[in-house]
Write a structure and sequence with these properties.
- Residues 79-105 are annotated as: Disordered.
- Residues 96-105 have a biased composition (Basic residues).
- Helix content is 59%, strand content 6%.
- It has helices at residues 2-22, 26-46, 52-67, 98-101, and strands at 73-75, 92-94.
- The protein is globular, with a radius of gyration of 16 Å.
């Protein structure tokens, strides 16, 4: 699961950065993420991974499992100071400036 966590963290970080830079609110970003999960399920069904209903049900289950995971978000302040990376946590570093990150409070 270690490599999956690293890849997932990188992808989530890029998603958050894109959502912030595109001006989405946190609510809109969550909706977009849900749409991406459903689109992935439909693509899996088209690739023969099961029926669309089966793939969508599986995607919802995985979405709920992922939502239950502990996530630690660290937002860098406008000074550009890096957070303490010696905490031992698998922290997700949102690199947006505080003026941009307010959309996700």
């Amino acid at each position: 699961m270690g490599m999956l966590r690293v890849k997932a963290g990188e992808l989530v970080e890029r998603f958050i950065e894109e959502a912030i830079s595109s001006g989405l609110t946190w609510d809109e970003a969550v909706a977009v993420f849900g749409l991406a999960a459903k689109a992935s399920a439909q693509a899996a069904a088209a690739a023969g991974e099961g029926t669309e209903a089966e793939c969508v049900a599986h995607a919802r289950e995985r979405f709920q499992e992922a939502f239950a995971q502990d996530v630690h978000v660290v937002v860098a302040d406008s000074s550009g100071a890096a957070p303490d990376e010696n905490t031992g946590d698998n922290a997700l570093l949102a690199t947006a400036r505080r003026r941009q990150a307010h959309k996700f409070h």
